Amino acid sequence: MTATTTPKTTIVAEPGRHDATVSAVVAAPVEAVWRAYTEAEHFTRWWGPAELTSRVDTWEPRPGGSWRIVQTDADGNEYAFRGVYHDVVPHERVTLTFEFEGMPGHVCLETHTLEAVPGGTKVTQHAVFQAVEDRDGMLQAGMEAHSPVAMAQLQAVAGGL
Predict the structure, then answer these.
(1) Per-residue pLDDT tens for 67-101?
(2) Cα-based distances in Å from 51 to 40, 45, 96
(3) Cα separation of 101 and 34, whole Å?
(4) Would you say residue 2 has pLDDT above 50?
(5) What domains are there in the chain, each with its CATH number?
(6) Does the predicted TM-score (pTM) go above 0.85?
(7) Cβ distance 1 to 27 under 8 Å?
């Protein structure tokens, strides 16, 4: 697998459940993937659709720290996202909340784990939503289509570090 390929991405979202899990093996070492997750200048290069530009307003990847990113489309429309870090274990795990400011109050708790495996790093993103409807809304908003793209972008960024 090279940095330009799309990693095989698995998405598990069982009907009637509040959670969804995305996993893939990216062709980059854990240390590089960790940097892509925790250093704002790298994170904004892979997180979100490539056609949007991202601006970091707040970035504090430590327990209790907050984050806020604003994405802008070609027409100047802005989409802001925010959350709070709950657990940060270097090279292993990040747990944080995620909220789209355009739909306030619909907060999910995400745990992102990194595991060294032959060929790179297994990235597992597990999100727990407050309601099944919130989880289903995220799926309908493009989670299934964008997740493989995000993993390819993560792989490209981490592979260059």
Answers:
(1) 999 999 999 999 999 999 999 999 999 999 999 99
(2) 18, 11, 25
(3) 26
(4) no
(5) 9-159 (3.30.530.20)
(6) yes
(7) yes
User: Taking all residues of the chain, what is their mean pLDDT, rounded to a whole number?
Assistant: 94
Burial grade of 12 (CB within 10 A; 0-12, 13-18, 19 or more): exposed
Rounded CA-CA distance 152/15 in Å is: 27
- Going by C-alpha positions, the residue among 21, 17, 22 that lies closest to residue 151 is 22
Calpha distance 60→40 (Å, rounded): 9
Give residue 122's identity as a one-letter amino acid code. K
Instruction: Write out the DSSP string of 31-48.
Output: HHHHHHHH-HHHHHHHSS
Nearest-angstrom CA–CA distance, 89 and 24: 20
pLDDT at 3 over 50: no
